[in-house]
Amino acid sequence: MRTPSQSNDERCVLVTGASRGIGRAISFRLAEAGMRVALGARTLEQIEEIASCIRTSGGKALAVRLDVTEPDSISTAVSQVEQHFGPVEILINNAGMAHFDDILCAQALHWREMFEVNVIGQLQVTQRVLPSMLRQNRGHVVMIASTSSHRAYAKQAGYCASKHALLGFSRVLLEELRETHVRVHLISPGGVNTDLARSTREDHVTEQYMDPKEVAESVHFVLQYHSMGTIDEIVLRRHKSSPML
């Protein structure tokens, strides 16, 4: 991790699903920019290690246990962040999960789990931090979606359905907040080399996938717009994958 520059962006950011993969990379990247980063995940040990690494490198970080499917956990985690860093100014809704299977073999339990985490969890965290953003009349809500929000993939019916739902939720949230200074951004990456990809897509060569740092750079990029311009969505695909035209 690079040492934060003197011209720090010291906004308070909460990253859900921060223990590994994309969430971990986003946490490091925003800490490098000088932001005060609160890392949220169900496994506290993992994020405490990441937070310690950020602080050792000169950044500001706090680890909080956060399960996006548990309202009490969300409320407690956000309260801890507010007490330590102040109001959340940037929310990175990154927590997600996936079960891949043929439709004939799909289990309703797995679909419920994906919707609980990938959609309802994002809703519940957003509902907890949004009132503060509206009172301050500024803020950013970043949804980490997927190219599965836009296209169909075999054996991913439940995952695609949940990510399509997240896309719809994000667009409605953007419309409802259009007259405010709270921005909504959707980052839709495909083919990222994470533990999730390696465990669920053994038929693919994950070495050809993008690095999580590439997604983190896109997140940092959309957060730079403070004035009249804004970025609604970025679709970030592997160069060798089919274009989304």
What would you say about this model in short?
By secondary structure, the protein is of the alpha/beta class.
Q: Strand-and-helix sequence, N→C?
A: EHEHEHEHEHEHHE
Mind describing the biggest β-sheet? Answer: 7 strands, parallel
The proportion of residues forming helix, as a percent range, comes to 40-55%
| Number of DSSP strand runs | 7
CATH architecture group name: 3-Layer(aba) Sandwich
CATH superfamily: NAD(P)-binding Rossmann-like Domain
Number of helices: 7
Strand content: 15-25%
Spans of 5+ residues with little confidence (pLDDT < 50)? 1-7
Query: What is the mean predicted local confidence, pLDDT?
Result: 89
Shape: globular
CATH topology: Rossmann fold
Whole-number tally of structural domains: 1
Structural class: alpha/beta
CATH class identity:
Alpha Beta
Radius of gyration: 17 Å
Cα-to-Cα separation, first versus last residue: 36 Å
Q: Main sheet: which strands, in order across? A: 3-2-1-4-5-6-7
